């Protein structure tokens, strides 16, 4: 399966600032996914990042708040803009790796996540 | 819209015993896949097991097995011979055929008692 590196691992940010999270994959992938995990909560999909086109955002998430770049097939960034304490979460990058002939399922591999704390 | 429900926020089990985590889901799709992921304190999401909805046979992976009841839209995870390393948050997730997106449940925190 793919190996995903996320940076930063954690950060403490001031209210009103923006932070960019990087996601690097060791193989080329078509789609990359960005999830948010608020404290003690489940994972919620923010958007799907496609190479060569604009990201597709889920309901409740907008490009102005979470701009995404996807310059190539192995890299993506997620920016959390104009942060408030409510943005304190773990942000996870994920890619589909396919299940091979044994399964049609597209197994998602996740990065270790970026824990953001907004003061 | 599809939903995944995990009704047990927390579970505990004695080491070496068996525990079952519950998951129900709702989808209008006929072809889909179901997953269990674990998230230890390291935050890394780790795939535990997956099930194809078109398969009647329940998936097994070593000490982990599922009880998939398609008509009831139920997908429980059984962990046999529980080990200390099994302590984690466990998330049930649903994926529609042809779509890589996952919809997650709210998770069950599993504690292993030595």
How would you describe what is shown here?
The complex is a heterodimer of chains A (119) and B (114). By secondary structure, chain A is mainly β. Chain A is 0% helix and 50% strand. Chain A contains no helices and eleven strands. Chain A has strands at residues 4-7, 10-13, 19-25, 31-37, 43-50, 56-57, 68-72, 75-80, 89-96, 108-110, 114-118. In chain A, strand 4 and strand 5 form a beta hairpin. Chain A starts with a strand and ends with a strand. The model of chain A is unreliable at 99-103 (pLDDT under 50). Chain B has 114 residues and is mostly beta strands. Chain B contains no helices and twelve strands. In chain B, strands 2, 5, 6, 10, 11 and 12 form a six-stranded mixed β-sheet that branches. Chain B has a four-stranded antiparallel β-sheet with strand order 3-9-8-7, with no helix packed on it. In chain B, strands 1-4 form a two-stranded antiparallel sheet. In chain B, strand 5 and strand 6 form a beta hairpin. The radius of gyration of chain B is 14 Å and the shape is globular. The N and C termini of chain B lie far apart (41 Å).
Cα gyration radius of chain A (Å): 14 Å
Which protein chains are joined by the largest interface, and how many residues does each one contribute?
A: A-B, 24 and 21 residues
Using only CA atoms, what is the Rg of chain B? 14 Å
Q: What string, H for helix and E for strand, traces the elements of chain A in order? A: EEEEEEEEEEE
Largest sheet of chain A: 7 strands, mixed
What is the approximate shape of chain B?
globular
Low-confidence sequence ranges of chain A: 99-103
Terminal CA distance of chain B: 41 Å
Alpha carbon gap, first and last residue of chain A: 36 Å
User: What's the quaternary structure here?
Assistant: heterodimer
Task: Look at the helices and sheets of chain A and give the structural class.
Answer: mainly beta
- State the helix count of chain B: 0
Strand content of chain B: over 45%
> What's the number of extended β-strand segments of chain A?
11
Order of helices and strands of chain B: EEEEEEEEEEEE
């Amino acid at each position: 399966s793919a190996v995903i590196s996320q940076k930063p691992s954690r950060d403490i940010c001031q209210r009103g600032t923006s932070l960019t999270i990087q996601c690097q994959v060791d193989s080329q992938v078509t789609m990359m996914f960005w999830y948010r995990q608020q404290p003690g909560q489940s994972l919620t999909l923010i958007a799907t990042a496609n190479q060569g086109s604009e990201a597709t955002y889920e309901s409740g998430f907008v490009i102005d708040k979470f701009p995404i770049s996807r310059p190539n097939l192995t890299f993506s960034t997620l920016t959390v803009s104009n942060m408030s304490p409510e943005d304190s979460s773990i942000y996870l990058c994920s890619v589909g790796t396919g299940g091979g002939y044994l399964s049609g399922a597209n197994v998602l591999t996740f990065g270790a996540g970026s824990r953001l704390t907004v003061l | 819209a599809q939903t995944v429900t995990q009704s047990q926020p927390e579970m505990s089990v004695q080491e070496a015993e068996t525990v079952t985590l519950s998951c129900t889901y709702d989808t209008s799709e006929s072809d889909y896949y179901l997953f269990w992921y674990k998230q230890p304190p390291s935050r890394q999401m780790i795939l535990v097991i997956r099930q194809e909805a078109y398969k009647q046979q329940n998936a097994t992976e070593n000490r982990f097995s599922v009880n998939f009841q398609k008509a009831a839209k139920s997908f429980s995870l059984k962990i046999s011979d529980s080990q200390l390393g099994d302590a984690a948050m466990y998330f049930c997730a649903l994926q529609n055929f042809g779509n890589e997106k996952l919809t997650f449940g709210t998770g069950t925190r599993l504690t292993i008692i030595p």
